[in-house]
Amino acid sequence: MLLRHTPKEITERSALTINPAKTCQPIGAMYAALGIHGCLPHSHGSQGCCAYHRSALTRHYKEPIAAATSSFTEGASVFGGQANLLQAIQNIFTVYEPDVIAVHTTCLSETIGDDLNQIRDKAQKEGKIPEGKHVIGANTPSYVGSHVTGFSNMVKAMAAAFATRTGHKNGKVNVIPGWVEPSDMEEIKRLAAMVGVPIILFPDTSGVLNAPLTGEYKMFPDGGVTVPELISSGDSLGTLALGEWCSADAARWLDANCKVPCMILDMPFGLKATDRFIDALRTVGGVSVPEEVMKERGQMVDFISDMHQYFYHKKVALAGDPDQLIAMVEFLVTLDMIPAYVVTGTPGKAFERRIKELTKDVPYECQVKAKGDMFLLHQWIKNDPVDLLIGNTYLKYIARDEDIPLLRWGFPILDRVGHQYFPTAGYKGGLRLLEKMLDLFLSRRDRDDPEQTFELVY
Amino acid sequence: MREAILEERRGQVCVSGAGPLEMACNRDSLAGAVSQRACVFCGSRVVLYPIADALHLVHGPVGCAVYTWDIRGALSSGPELHRLSFSTDLQEKDVIFGGEDKLRAALDELIDRHSPKAAFVYSTCIVGLIGDDLEAVCREMTEKKGIPVIPVQSEGFKGNKREGYQAACKAMFTLVGTGDVSDVPPVSINILGDFNLAGEIWIIREYFERMGVTVVANITGDGRVDDIRRAHGAALNVVQCSGATLELAKMIQEKYGKPFIRASYLGIEDMAESLYAVAEHFKDVDPGIMERAEAVVRDELAKLLPSLEKFRKDLKGKKAAIYVGGAFKAFSLIKAFRHLGMKVVLVGSQTGTEEDYEELGKITDPGTIIVDDANPLELSHFIKEKDVDVFVGGVKERPIAFKLGVGFCDHNHERKEALEGFIGMYNFAKEIHASAMSPVWRFVPRRALAAGEKE
Ligand code: SF4
Fold first, then answer.
1. Is B367 helix (H, G, I), strand (E, B) or coil?
2. Residue-wise pLDDT tens digits, B275-302
3. Which of A131, A398, B135, B203 is the most buried (most CB within 10 A)?
4. Is there a domain that residue A71 lies in?
């Protein structure tokens, strides 16, 4: 099969990444920028990057992804891309008429050393940015960090470009959801509304990347955080940043520059992380948690109690992004499961420490690696197999090779749909995760159990 | 949308039948365009990647390697090393101090572990800037490892896909001529420009074999390094597609005196013509070949034509739009649609040449819109204006078609069915039928409204 190329013996690799568990920064910036209403992401580099990022996002969301490119040529790579970007800004506002252009760099423009701020100022001076329109920019060198870093950088750029402190508090709470699905963003909004806390959610790709089919192509769908909301985020009561890797930088910027105090939480996946999120909302919003929310929580606990024996000590291998993995690993531990192997392509020793800490009481020595890849994950599995894989579509090679069920979760999912519409965040989302995992385990038994022990009732 | 067409892009949109067609194509995309085009690296990668027993190492930051990891279903009947993703994953310090050591170490390790027949090393944007001497490292590793380690000069910014094709051809040409050709028979060809998506090259090979033609090398679908080494032994190169591998055919002709012909395996006429053209070429050496070619066509058509009838009945009069990478494919598609009784009302390409567009002007019906390097707004504008029923394009066009409530057929990387050969025409008709006739479009507000008005 495909991965017969993976040997069991693990050797130290330093020069080489095989079957990566990450991708480059710009795509994260592009995804984040799509969460601003009326925003056209712009890739400052050669055409290829932009085409790749758009295609990758399209494959995951099954939605048209509009983004422009500076279309670098040899000339630009020698003399810098300023002329290209200036012309691009002018063309984009003339033809596509977005409210915002969100520029991110690529490895090319970073290495040349183009200065986005200076180019934007020049565009402003030359009148290329129409009244009431905006150009924001984030540096996203592809040879640093990962797609997660790019996402974080663009979210921070949103805050830095727009958030304004007037001195009059707006009574709202900023929630920075991190790189989660549009459905999760919707769920976070629903939960906040239930708790009764008015929030500003940014970025917000719900309504953008899960838009309905109307028969019209809208370059700028209805969803997204609006510019006035972003401006107002400087007057909020506080900020809840969900995920250290995706969201903390923006939150800290708001704290330092607009005196909006922040709390860095984990992404609200699973029981405990959702509890902490609801509790934080309650505290900053100064409200009490309504019965409805408690009911949803109770249902989730009920599910777990009904079926806990089927989760007991199931071994799991995970690949994905740090914030998601941290929340998921905690959830698995809550379920008395064993997160055996955890890999992210994103660098960061802090990630490894956090996973170690979360799994310290688990009766299995958890192997964790930041800046790892799926090749390594597969090698671990070959040495000692697991019952379940959790991660993106690329894990399907391992799933097939080793005949292990795969829960598709994370980015990208190229071969299934549903993640756009059904959240995995919050209590309701937790129920969906539980249902999916249980189904995978029990379908296996239905398939594999010998006839004598094949059971009707679980 | 006030105005779909950028003033500067006026020259890149034409209407067939409105005087001579002068397309201002082959231009770089405008800065700020939401272009559907890709880069040099992308071009090289799609051409070379199907060579299944070679190692493909992307030298650059991780992104380029991830986005090209097994995204095209270029099938292999044997080794599958090409389906893994290898990247030197350049980091900031490599960008500053150079990535040559890393490249060397990566090659060292990979070649030892996988014993590939050859290694292709792709340079990406950044490698072009930091000044790594790819050639020197490859030369050194060739010597050290005893297999060809071939640099592919595919820095993204040096043009669009077409330059990438050229870089790929140059890389492959270093292999050609290094294998033993003493046993290659006189009636022999190489199949160039087919990537074995959904197993297409197997279909085409089988036709040629039935005609008594030996296929020396598949370039590059289900490709093997040793076959390419012997490619100069084949008497004729049969080149498909707008030019992904045309350059290689030209190089072989120049150096080894082996001629080439162009072919297309899409649609009935083009498929048949391609077989006849090859038969014609060999008819002096092998007098029976034309008859055998005719027999292949006859047998296949006898199976195919009756099976198309049921689709034709439903599809007659429906309108199609085409937006593809190379214009050559568009020619075949236009003919294929005619067979289904459909009208092509919009046709465009990412990388067509002036001659391509002239030709398109000739073979399309008057009033057909012809575009070069279009953006989504233009495409959706014309699709609505022309009331299109089904759109043929690639991954970025699919969701646009669907949002407009229009059927879609992927004629690019993500095709799941073989669309080449006679059987391919059947599959194509079936796909078009499945999508254009889907009941889902009746639930789309815009089209439901339009249908209501018509009644
Ligand atoms: S790694 Fe660099 S060149 Fe490759 S897609 Fe990412 S930004 Fe573009």
1. coil
2. 999 999 999 999 999 999 999 999 999 9
3. A398
4. yes
